[in-house]
Amino acid sequence: MNNIIQFGEKVEGYNIPVLNEREIRAAAGILFLLMLVAILVVIFIGDFTLLKYTVTIFLTDISIRVFINPKYSPFLIIGRWAVRNQVPEYVGAPQKKFAWFIGFGLSSLIFILSNVVNSYGPITALVCLICLVFLFWETAFGICLGCKFYGLFYKDKVQYCPGEVCAKEDRQAIQKTSKAQWLIVLGFAAYITGMVFLLNDLYVIPPDNLWDIIQGTTTP
């Protein structure tokens, strides 16, 4: 029974239980996609059915992670299979458990408001947005925002962060961002702004069928 209900796995060379960050990111990407599609359906169609199913699935999966064992989380299993050919990147289990408890609380609140009370409003929308942000940062950047909160309470106990972000040593030269690079980013933002002003009248024109264009039968 003790082997079933546990959090993290023991790996040689690590003095605390760890998890594979690569499969966690893969699972977060799948959940992000499901949540995004469900929210877009609500926004554009006004149908909450898919969102209710997605929230239920999300809550069930994260409950398995925090109360039973991440090893038996369906999405983590899928994520493990997806990255099976990649070298594991180990992350400390304690901060992940803390982060997933936050996720459990957020998904529970959405479940109560949308599925039990059968309501919608700014609170539900805000919590859904927070969940999307958490999942996106995990997926796109490999940054666990929930783990950041763990570091605020247990600063001296944080170990084995993804990318060694909790290490004290300076970053390598290739990781540093110069002023010139930031100027490029600002210039690109100005370029996008100018493009919107200059090309908006052209880009809002609905496209024609390519075959009609080839045949010359498009309406002027």
List keywords for this structure.
220 residues, mainly alpha, 2 domains, globular
How does the major sheet shape up?
2 strands, antiparallel
Write down the overall mean pLDDT.
87
Strand order across the largest sheet: 1-2
Q: What structural class do you assign from the helix and strand content?
A: mainly alpha
- Rg result: 22 Å
Which percent bin holds the helix content?
55-70%
How far the N terminus sits from the C terminus, by CA atoms, comes to 73 Å
Helix and strand element order: EHHHEHHHHH
- Write down how many β-strands occur, each being a DSSP E stretch of 2 or more residues: 2
Shape: globular
Number of folding domains? Answer: 2
Instruction: Give the low-pLDDT segments.
Output: none
Count of DSSP H/I helices = 8
User: In percent terms, what proportion of residues is strand?
Assistant: under 5%
Explain how this protein is built:
- By secondary structure, the protein is mainly α.
- It has 2 domains: 18-171, no CATH class; 177-215.
- The chain is 62% helix and 3% strand.
- Helix 1 (21-45) packs antiparallel against helix 2 (49-67), helix 1 (21-45) packs across helix 3 and helix 2 (49-67) runs antiparallel to helix 4 (93-116).
- The relative contact order is 0.11.
What is the fold's blueprint, element by element?
Elements lengths: L17 E3 H25 L3 H19 L6 H9 L7 E3 H24 L5 H20 L3 H9 L25 H25 L6 H6 L5
Antiparallel strand pairs: 1-2
Helix pairs in contact: 1-2, 1-3, 1-5, 2-4, 4-5, 4-6
